[in-house]
Amino acid sequence: MAAQLSAGRGASVRGLDASPNLLAIAQERVPSAAFLLGELEALPYADHTFDLVTGFNSFQYAGNPGIALSEAKRVAKPGGQVLIVTWGTPEGMEAASLIRVLGPLMPPPPPGAPGPFALSDEPALRAFAIGAGLEPLEVFDVPSPWHYADLSTALRGLLSSGVAARAAAHSGEDAVNAAHSRVLEPYRQPDGSYTIGASYRCLTARA
Fold it and tell me: Transmembrane segments in this chain: where (predicted)?
């Protein structure tokens, strides 16, 4: 969505993800953009390239989040902005159950891995930005419920995330779909659709 909005406003859009499925969707929706398969810790861009660098639910999943954010700062122009989007606080967020259920299906995390909600705490998020040499500007929350027309659509959408793809590679798609199906059941609407409450915590920072 961010790539679509930016391209629609005339921006030159570049993107990177570790999930081929997500990249294919992004490229289909924004044909004018250039998307690459890669890792956050080694961005394939020159120093001081971008006016704005965004990371959507990405830094907390990086093998080394600090290096990943330092890379984001490196490719941002001096005085440019970096936007970090992470999960909102898990307490009371319905989508948190869909995130947590993947834990047992994932490969063992590296020692000291932060976990999906490590940056949801505002002081931790600000400290994370400062540690990479960024100047935090604003922290705000964005509610964004998930809506799916039916179970098949929900499972397909959830499986397209990079985290779910890693869980599927480790434990199999059937296991991931079964886990998601169990968690989704309480959110089934009378018409067979699903609505799950979700929110995101965002930090803007100056490079």
Answer: none
User: How much is the average pLDDT of 38-59?
Assistant: 96
Q: Give the full edge-to-edge strand order of the sheet including 199-206.
A: 50-56, 76-87, 199-206, 135-143
Indicate the CATH number of 39-206 among 3.60.15.10, 3.30.460.10, 3.40.50.150, 3.30.360.10.
3.40.50.150
CB 126 within 8 A of CB 120: no
CB 37 within 8 A of CB 8: no
Domains of the chain: which residue ranges?
A: 1-38, 39-206
**Residue % of the chain over a pLDDT of 90:** 85
Alpha helices in the chain (DSSP H): 2-8, 20-29, 65-75, 96-100, 122-131, 151-159, 162-171, 173-184
| pTM check: above 0.70 | yes
Q: What is the DSSP string of 40-61?
A: GGG-SS-TT-EEEEEEES-GGG
**pLDDT tens digits for 65-78?**
999 999 999 999 99
Please tell me the distance from the alpha carbon of residue 158 to that of residue 177, in angstroms, as a whole number: 9
Mean pLDDT of 126-147: 98
Cβ neighbours of 78 (radius 10 Å): 9
Rounded to whole angstroms, the Cα distance separating 150 from 191 reads: 9
